[in-house]
Write a structure and sequence with these properties.
13 helices, mainly alpha
Length: 316
Amino acid sequence: MTSTAATRTAWLQIHFCVILWGFTAILGKLISMPALPLVWWRMLLVVVLLLLLPRVWRGLRAMPARLLWSYAGVGVLVALHWLTFYAAIKLSNASVGATCMALGTVFTALIEPWLTGKRLSKREFALGLTVLPGVALMVDGIPDGMLIGVAVGTISALFVAFFNSLNKRLVGHSDALSVTALEMAAGVAAITLIAPLSGMLSPAFGGNPFLLPDLHDGAYLLLLAVACTLVPFVLSLLALRHLSAFGTQLAVNLEPVYAIALAMLLLGEQHELTPRFYLGVAIILGAVLIYPLLVRPKKIEHPEILATGESKVVGE
């Protein structure tokens, strides 16, 4: 395959991946289980499927103990991110949840300098200010009953910013599939430990993770684990060989756009929201799409982020 043809194929692959990632919010709305068992089963299925690969076991055996614990800690943050992400969807709808995830890129731009000791650039600070009118319009354009979903979704986006930034701080680099398996396994363990406390939370969060899902939810969970996690992860790793980090980040930042379009098409959510909401979304997504222009990422440092976040900042 020529270089031009390979690049064209890679672009198709990465956009197909972004569409699949966009379905995560839709499936979160379609699955009747509360957020906690939903996330537990999603992560468990991904772990089981990855542990079938000898490459993953080799990568885990070669990983230093310090990295094992570091990635496990990041996996706990991933679990909390997914838990709050799906709870936000249950408390509002898929469009609101996807929009909140777009804030992850903005939060990362603001939080990463604080965690790494780097000086916050004026351009990234301006990016953070730019989204504030969008957030205000978004909040003003939804029913009052969905405001708690925005609050929980914003917390989820903060978790995205923390685990994106912490992943970049890890000194060593390991096989991306092995790292993903480790982070997912740590997430399963964390959710198992906090499950007894779920009764203190909203019904959108709680639930017994050990109850088998019914046929309807089981089919959607399998789709979530395979079609929305592992398949796009593998395809995106292949596509990264032929795409710049800048182009990849720009494409990945379209994920909320695809999710909102799918929510309108499949769930009819536009009838629940006002034009003010969509104007706010346009401002937020405009800022997010400008982000790669400000940062100009040079390479993909941590491709495992492609499998573990609904909002992804993959370049550095």
